[in-house]
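Structure in, sequence out. Go:
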């Protein structure tokens, strides 16, 4: 099964799916007879799938996915195309929950903007993005986007410098939430 960054047309998606923007769920529409070569296949597909939730399989990365005509798609990208007609650059799940595909939670953003609403890495030892203990100087270092903000005597000073820089650079308030 192939995965694709390109998406079916909005017209095709509207013929196949309905979307509930309040719940973030997609449902299969009944398919017309002309989509099938045999009556038996048409009846079976509609009996088994029409009205059922669509593109709702969770994957390890935390997103929901599903297949359309043998190609696997991430659900949030299909929703964006279905609702706007546009192919998104990247979709930010504003609250950080990759399974929450409510319309109010989805935003089309560039890669760098999407990086401004990330959870804290599980490998982060300080618990705060961009703050690290430097054993050789016995100080806390604060960085943002690769830029050095300074070295500080206390953890709290380093965190304050980092948070101030996040505000200045328009990071999302959820940025750095617990992994």
């Amino acid at each position: 099964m192939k995965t694709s960054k390109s998406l079916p047309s909005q017209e095709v998606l509207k013929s196949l799916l309905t979307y509930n923007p309040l719940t973030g769920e997609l449902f299969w529409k009944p398919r017309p007879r002309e989509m099938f070569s045999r009556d038996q296949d048409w009846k079976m597909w509609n009996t088994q799938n029409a009205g059922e939730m669509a593109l709702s399989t969770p994957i390890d990365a935390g997103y929901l996915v599903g297949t359309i005509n043998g190609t696997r798609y991430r659900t949030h990208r299909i929703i964006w195309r279905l609702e706007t007609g546009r192919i998104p650059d990247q979709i930010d799940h504003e609250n950080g929950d990759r399974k929450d595909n409510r319309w109010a939670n989805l935003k089309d953003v560039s890669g760098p903007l999407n990086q401004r609403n990330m959870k804290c890495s599980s490998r982060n030892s300080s618990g705060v993005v961009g703050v690290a203990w430097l054993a050789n100087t016995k100080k806390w270092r604060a960085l943002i986007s690769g830029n050095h903000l300074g070295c500080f005597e206390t953890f709290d000073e380093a965190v304050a410098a980092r948070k101030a820089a996040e505000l200045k650079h328009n990071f999302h308030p959820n940025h750095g939430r617990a992994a």
